[in-house]
Design goal:
Number of helices: 3
Helix content: over 70%
Shape: elongated
Strand content: under 5%
Order of helices and strands: HHH
Structural class: mainly alpha
Largest sheet: none
């Protein structure tokens, strides 16, 4: 799936001989939950919500990246 590939590329990109910080892990866990929700919505043909949850998942992956690189908690929408 595209999400899995995108997420794995992200995780490999930010790992440089060190584990991710707790904030980045937090955002990645939330993005995983959003994708699971999007899959459930897809099964029931609630396509508007599929798009919304995928958008949320991508935004949370970007927040994880920013959190990892800056060591600060992002609070504002990124996309």
């Amino acid at each position: 799936m595209i999400y899995s590939k995108f997420r794995s590329i992200f995780v490999e990109t930010i790992k440089i001989n060190a584990p991710m910080n707790e904030r980045a892990n937090y955002w990645l866990e939330l993005s995983d939950y959003d994708i699971i929700t999007a899959q459930a919505m897809l099964e029931t043909q609630r396509l508007l919500y599929v798009g919304f949850m995928c958008h949320q998942a991508i935004e949370k992956i970007l927040k994880a990246y920013c959190s990892e690189k800056t060591n600060e908690q992002p609070h504002t929408p990124i996309i």
